[in-house]
Amino acid sequence: MRTPGLRGLLAADTELGAGNMLARVLAHGADPDGPALTFDTAVDGHPAQTPLTLGQLDERVAARAAWLHEQGVRPRDPVAVWATAAADMVLSFLALARLGAIPALMNGRLRPEIAAEYIRRLRGVGVLADDAHTALLAGHELGVPLLGTPAQAGTGDPAAAPPHYRHHPDDPIVITHTSGTTGVPKAVLHSHASLFAATRHLLSMPQAQGTTRILNALPAPHTATVLMVNQALGNRAEMFLLSEQGGERVLDAIQRWRPDGVFGFSVTWAELARFDLSGYDLDSVRLWFNTGDCSHEPHIRRLVAVGWHDTVTRDGVARVPGSLFIDGLGSSEMGHSMFHITHRADTDRYGRCIGRPYQFTKVAVLDADGEPVPVGEVGFLGIDSPSLFRGYWNDSATTYRFRQRGWYLTGDLVRADAEGRYYHLDRAVDSVDAGNGRRFFTALSEERILAACPDVTDCTVVIVGAAGEVVTDVLLELAAGADEAENRTDQVRAALGADVGATLRRVVPVRSDDIPVTVTGKVRKVALRERYLTEAAS
Question: pTM for this one?
Answer without folding.
Answer: 0.94
